[in-house]
Amino acid sequence: MRFETTVQRPVEASGVGLHSGVPVKIRIVPAPPATGIVFVRTDLDRFTIPASWRYVQKVSYATSLMRQGVLISTTEHLLSTFYSMGIDNAYVEIDNLEVPILDGSGLPFVELINTAGIKEYRRRKRYLRIRRPVSVEGGGKRITILPSDRFLLTCDVYFPHPLVGRQSLETEVTPEFYAENIAPARTFGFEHELGQMRNMGLIRGASLDNAVCFDQTSILNPGGLRFPDECCRHKALDLIGDLALIGRPLLGHVIAEKAGHAMHFALVNRIMADPTLYEIISFDQLATRVAHALVS
C-alpha cells in the first residue's frame, strides 16, 4: 500500500480476557494520519496507551503494554491483525485491562476490519527496512531478521506431542494470505500445564471455545484442529503482533526458531536501539529502488 489507512467506520466486539477472565468490550474507531494504533481506556477517563515497543511491560504468556501504571494486556492478536490487514491508524476503545480473546484467533478481528472497511489517506506510508542481519538467541531458541524489500516470515516450532512435533511455515505476509491462512489459527496449550498456569493467575478466561487444548495423545476440542499445523500458524500470528510494536510496516525476512514473546520483543528492542540497522523509506522510494535493481 502506498498511503496510510484507518478503518472506515467504528466497529465493536465484546468477550472475556484470556488470562484475567474479566468481561471486556472494545470499539475500533477511525484515527487521523500519523496516529498509529492507540488504546483508550474508557473506564479510566479515556487514558491512552500507544501500541509501541516503548510501553511493553510484560512478555511472558502474552504481550502487555503499560503507561503510568495503566495496563493493556494480551494485545498481540489484535495488533497482528491490524498490521497484516494494513491498518496504520486506529483508536481502540477498551473498558477493561485485557483485549478480549474472542475465539482465540485473529479471525474475529479480520471480520471486524472487513465490516468497518478501510479508508485510505493521502499521507504516504513509510516503511522500516532492515539494512543488515540482526539475531537474538538463547536456550535453543533463535530469531533473526535479514534484509528484504518485502515482509517475509519463516516460523519453526517444536512441541513433543504426537499431533504437533516439528512444524514450519514460510511465506510473504499479505492481507489475503493472512486472513485465510494465519488469522484463523487459535491459541493453544497442553493439559498438563494448566494447573501451573492457573496457580500463576493466568488463563482464568480460557475454555475450549477460545483455545486449543492437547492432552497427552489427542486434542480435547470437539471440532478438532483448523489446520494440521495450527500451532505453528498461531505462533506466526503472535510473532506478527509483537513485531507490529515497531509502529511501522516492516521490510525484512524474519526467521523464528522456537521463539516466543520475550524473544520477539528482544529482537524489536535490538532493532530500535540501533538506528544503523534500518532505514525509513516510502513506498515510492522502495518501488524506485526495486525497479533500478531489476534493470541492473
Could you characterize the architecture of this molecule?
With 296 residues, the chain is α+β, with helices and mostly antiparallel strands. It has two domains: 123 residues, lpxc deacetylase, domain 1 (Ribosomal Protein S5, domain 2), CATH 3.30.230.20; 169 residues, lpxc deacetylase, domain 2 (lpxc deacetylase, domain 1), CATH 3.30.1700.10. It has seven helices and 19 strands. The strands form five sheets. Strands 11, 12, 13, 14, 15, 18 and 19 form a seven-stranded mixed beta sheet that branches. The protein has a five-stranded mixed beta sheet with strand order 2-3-9-4-5, covered by helices on one side.
Task: Please tag this protein with its features.
296 residues; alpha+beta; Ribosomal Protein S5, domain 2; lpxc deacetylase, domain 1; seven-stranded mixed beta sheet; five-stranded mixed beta sheet; globular
What layout of secondary structure does this protein have?
Blueprint (H helix, E strand, L loop, with lengths): L2 E5 L3 E6 L6 E7 L7 E5 L5 E4 L5 E3 L5 E4 L2 E3 L3 H10 L4 E5 L12 H10 L1 E7 L1 E5 L3 E5 L2 E6 L4 E9 L5 E8 L2 H8 L5 E3 L3 H6 L12 E3 L15 H14 L6 E8 L3 H12 L5 E5 H13 L1
Parallel strand pairs: 4-9, 11-18, 14-18, 16-17
Antiparallel strand pairs: 1-10, 2-3, 3-9, 4-5, 6-7, 7-8, 11-19, 12-13, 13-18, 14-15
Helix pairs in contact: 1-2, 1-5, 5-6
